[in-house]
Amino acid sequence: YFYFEQKDVIFINAYLEFGTGTSLPFQKIMFRCFRSFLYHNNDNNELVQLEDEDQINLNTYTGSIYNHFYNGTWQKPVSDTYWIHNDNIYAHATRVDIKRSTSSAIEAFESWSNLPINSRTEILNNLAYTLEHNGKYLLAKTVSKCIKLLNTIHKNILTCQDERLELIAIRAPGGVIPLYHTDEVILFSYLTVSLYFGNCVVVVYSRNSCNIIPYFNMFSTAEIPPGVINLISYKNLPYSAQISHPELIDQLLEVTIPKNIILPLK
């Protein structure tokens, strides 16, 4: 037989008769989105210069200031530049900020994805309780509902069998998942699905997307480990935030990859 580890495929006494529809997910952990964001121009650091009206003196501005969040703490932007939206000030991301937040997620991925799924579920239940305790009832209900549905889906492992082989098809974490949505409820649904299966995420905030910055203290209270949820902000992304409302199963397929276990019956 053979089995899959997190990174490798190990064959033991196998004759490589995989059967129909078998796929081997040789994929590296990678930040699969925002490539145009990372390489928008030839500058080594800045992506797009902020407009003159966004050049802010933090010593004189009286609004709230929000930095990036990665490695479990708030981080000032490398360029030390900010932009204004709804009377608040947000850090302006450069390639360096993005790479640092992604590295934070990749580092956390190994331990988070190797946690037993029951442990990750317990932490997500803590998040639902924390949201409810802070009066965020709709988001708490969203997280709890996702957990219940995912538990059901996870138990229904797809199994195919013939006279020689048994194929068990499951879903494995995709790695680092970027989240960028206009709807707070849908974003929390994506967040729950991503974390349930062992992914880490980088949430991107812009003036066109929903803002989950106020929830990072709740993530900490729920004991979500550092690096599992990261955030960067950027004023003008070169494309729009996601506005669709996909079903849970479609979200699941977006943030996971197929993983097959094949057992010979003879």
Please describe what this structure looks like.
- InterPro entries: Ald_DH/histidinol_DH, Ald_DH_N.
- With 266 residues, this protein is of the alpha/beta class.
- The chain has a single domain (67-264), classed as Aldehyde Dehydrogenase, Chain A, domain 1 (3-Layer(aba) Sandwich), CATH 3.40.605.
- It contains seven helices and 13 strands.
- It has helices at residues 35-38, 95-114, 117-133, 137-155, 184-196, 216-221, 248-255; strands spanning 2-4, 9-11, 65-66, 68-70, 73-75, 82-85, 88-91, 158-161, 165-173, 176-179, 200-205, 229-233, 256-264.
- Strands 3-7-6 form a three-stranded mixed β-sheet, with no helix packed on it. It has a three-stranded antiparallel β-sheet with strand order 8-9-13.
- α4 packs parallel to α5 and α5 (184-196) packs across α7.
- The longest helix has 20 residues, at 95-114.
Q: How many domains, in number, for the residues?
A: 1
Parts with pLDDT < 50 across at least 5 consecutive residues: 1-7, 15-20, 24-45
Give the CATH superfamily. Aldehyde Dehydrogenase, Chain A, domain 1
Largest sheet: 3 strands, mixed
Name of the CATH class:
Alpha Beta
Overall pLDDT metric: 80
- The separation of the N and C termini measures 10 Å
By CATH, the topology is Aldehyde Dehydrogenase, Chain A, domain 1
Structural class: alpha/beta
Organism: Trachymyrmex cornetzi
GO molecular function, one term: oxidoreductase activity
Protein name: Aldehyde dehydrogenase domain-containing protein
InterPro entries: Ald_DH/histidinol_DH, Ald_DH_N
